[in-house]
Amino acid sequence: MRRSLGLLALAALAACATTPSASPPAAQRTARIPAPFTLADPYPSTYRPLPRVDTLITHATVLDGAGRRWDDADVLLRDGKVAALGRGLAVPAGAAVIQAKGRWVTPGIIDIHSHDGDFPMPYTSQQLGHPDVSETAEPNEAGVLAEQSMLAQDPDFSRALAGGVTTLQILPGSDDLFGGRTVVVKDVPAVTIQAMKFPGAPQGLKMACGENPEHQFGDKGRFPSSRMGNFAGYREGWIKAREYRRKWEAYERGESRDPPDRDLKLDTLAAVLGGDILVHMHCYRSEEMAYVIDMSREFGYRVAAFHHAVEAYKIPDLLVKAGVCAVVWSDWWGYKLEAYDAIRENAAFVDAAGGCVTMHSDSGVIGQRLTIEAAKAMAAGRRAGLSIAPEHAIAWVTLNPARAMGLDRQVGSLEVGKNADAVIWSGDPFSIYSKADQVFIDGALVFDRSDPTRRPLSDFELGQPSVGRRP
């Protein structure tokens, strides 16, 4: 073995002596390191489904998330997947049976815009003054990961679970032009974020338009201090990322001997340009959303969704053509200037134009009541003369967010083969009087309103009985 290695080394030296420097030898080209923006997640999911048994839910009103309503129907959850949906299903051997007559069943609710974990309860003066939700040293903080600020024991997770939420996308805050990478988690009790991470879920890049970055930096006499400065900052970032990607591609082709210097911010942006990371952009005004769509075409990346998007109703044609989802509230407005021109019919009007609409929380309080957010938006649309059925509106908090996150093959609807994420509601999920009775994630019963042992609690809620006591 030593002899063969020596011969290889001599051969490599001989090749170096006869090969022009512009074309590195084959032995060096084959030893190229991969571009960092193509590598796997350095902090992979360690999630494992909780203990589960096959379950048949019978005689329920089912909204399947894919546009259909089933009356007096059964849903079979087997081996962590949706196995069947229909009427009069046979009970498999060993399966638990839940009688749901008079109750409703939906897919697990998906919150596409949450800060749970990154802005955890309890809200202390220190946390409010120095929240971990944003890194604000520079306008471009694309290199940070939301998951590395998160607290798995945030009580907001259990509150969201009690509201039927099974999947959440956690985003950095909106102070930066490029705020960092998002993470998708399953709403299961855990002590590490890796144990909550949705295996294989695409990462997102949080970006922000408008007043937030303008004030975060401009009020301190720094760039950017205007909306036009914001856009100049975006374009500078994309230009650098395009050049960074070009250098790595040239290196991988063997056109340069040494790899480019590693840059975490540009790793993220280069991955966006390659289609591996989805852009989720905080943006309120229609003019800015139009400019962002143009900018995405200029640099060749895709915007998955505009978040908050209070003026989406003004440009539904642009959103439909670009395939961008509007992630909205039902009635938040007016708390700052760019949120002034909102209407309650926003979601309904974009939906009626054929656009993708998703409700979101942005708040631990709203995150407990996303079906009510959808109900308010549906009611506003109905008052405006639109016919919106429950089996259609449920997609605003199930299948549509799954699509915008690139997860619609796994979750978002009760279709055979998808993950068994489901909620049994005490009544119509769009009624303020209904509650989530049972919540399943991958077929495991994670929450049961009638069973205190299946209502997860955070460590913060257990108190400190030994504080101040001597052993």
Describe the structure.
The chain is 28% helix and 20% strand. It is α/β, with parallel strands linked by helices and 471 residues long. It has a domain at 108-412: TIM Barrel (Alpha-Beta Barrel). Helix 10 (346-352) links the parallel strand 13 (325-328) and strand 14. Helix 10 crosses helix 11 (370-383). The model is unreliable at 1-24 (pLDDT under 50).
Question: What string, H for helix and E for strand, traces the elements in order?
Answer: HHEEEEEEHHEEEEHHHEHEHEHEHHHEEE
* Main beta sheet strand tally, sense and closure: 8 strands, mixed
Q: Would you tell me the overall average pLDDT?
A: 92
Would you state the CATH class of the domain at 108-412? Alpha Beta
The radius of gyration computed from the alpha-carbon positions, rounded to a whole number of angstroms, is: 25 Å
How large a portion of the residues is in β-strands, by DSSP E? Answer: 15-25%
- Runs in which pLDDT lies below 50 for 5 or more consecutive residues are 1-24
The coarse overall form would be globular
Strands, count: 17
Q: Termini separation (Å)? A: 63 Å
